Amino acid sequence: MNKTILIDLELCVGCGACSVACMDQNDSFPERGDGSFRRIYQIEEGNFPESFIQYISASCMHCEDAPCLIGCPTGAIYRSGGSVQVDRDICIGCHSCALACPFGVPRYDEENKMRKCNLCEVRVENGLKPACVKVCPTQALRFGEPNEIMTEREHETSAGLIEAMRRISRG
Fold first, then answer.
1. What angle do CA 39, 55, 67 make, to 5 degrees?
2. What is the pLDDT at residue 164?
3. pLDDT in tens, 153-168
4. At residue 146, does pLDDT exceed 80?
5. What CATH number is associated with residue 83?
6. What count of other Cβ atoms lies within 10 Å of the Cβ of residue 68?
7. Whole-angstrom Cα distance, residue 56 to residue 19?
8. What secondary structure letter does DSSP report for 16?
9. Which of 98, 116, 134 is the last residue of a domain?
10. Residues 124 and 55 in one domain
11. What phi and psi, each to the nearest 5 degrees, are found at residue 148?
């Protein structure tokens, strides 16, 4: 499995559905100190009246050369297909992965064991999309082979441009 989740920043509206789906899928409870593995960031740019807000839904990037995997002294972090996974039985809670990760992804639970997005491995193995992708109302999150997703997006953009040109030419 060399699949990933890509985000279309033009479509993300910051609704948080992906974050809630992630918490539900992973039995995370904010009242117990757990959080979602998928975080929504809001970036404000510009000055009035030309200001805008950009939302970014982010989680583990499942990096090709994952610094967290390289930094783990026990081998608790490993690659399974295209995703980076954690064996909590081997994790010693040393936080080396957190120091190595440039995205601040690793989290630790009450047992001081690392937890992170597992790309909904069980769902994907059963032919389903990751929970965050499934619930995204604007389809800003897409799951699949990186090249296929980009090709699909390019076709959609081209089709949109062609339709816009048709409307303009009809005047």
1. 45
2. 62
3. 665 656 666 666 676 7
4. no
5. 3.30.70.20
6. 24
7. 12
8. -
9. 116
10. yes
11. -65, -40
